[in-house]
Amino acid sequence: VQLEESGPGLVKPSQTLSLTCTVSGGSVTTTNYAWDWIRHTPEKGLEWMGAISTRGITYYSPSLKSRTSIARDTSKNQFTLQLSSVTPEDTAVYYCAKISGGDWGQGTQVTVSS
Question: Which has fewest Cβ within 10 Å: 18, 19, 25, 28?
Fold first, then answer.
């Protein structure tokens, strides 16, 4: 399974960060898997943000739940991340992954700055 993140590399404070993960070699509706979003900063390390199951059920980190939305587009075999009201502390490398299968995208740098 291959995963590839895409989206803007620069977001202004207070705006919404939007990323898309395109999946190939597998299906976002395949049973027994969930599809994850994780981010990495030098200060905090890896932080799991949330996931969407093959049935479309979403799970979120309690610390980010109020600002995070994960969805999927089964017709495009993609799943998405939206993080609202971003601040410079949300600057990170964002990864999509299928953690259960050990599959990760290469990551995409997102900087929050005016």
Answer: 25
- If 0-12 CB within 10 Å is exposed, 13-18 middle and 19+ buried, where does residue 14 land? exposed
Distance CA 23, CA 28 (A): 7
DSSP 7: S
Neighbours of 32 (CB within 10 A): 8
Q: How far apart are the first and last CA of the chain?
A: 36
Q: How far is CA 37 from CA 24, 70, 114, in A?
A: 16, 9, 24
Checking if the pLDDT of 3 tops 80, the result is yes
Tokens of 37: 């979003």
Structural contact between residues 97 and 33, judged by C-beta atoms closer than 8 angstroms: no
Task: Scan for tokens 């799970």, then name that residue.
Answer: 59
**Tokens 């960060």 sit at which residue?**
17
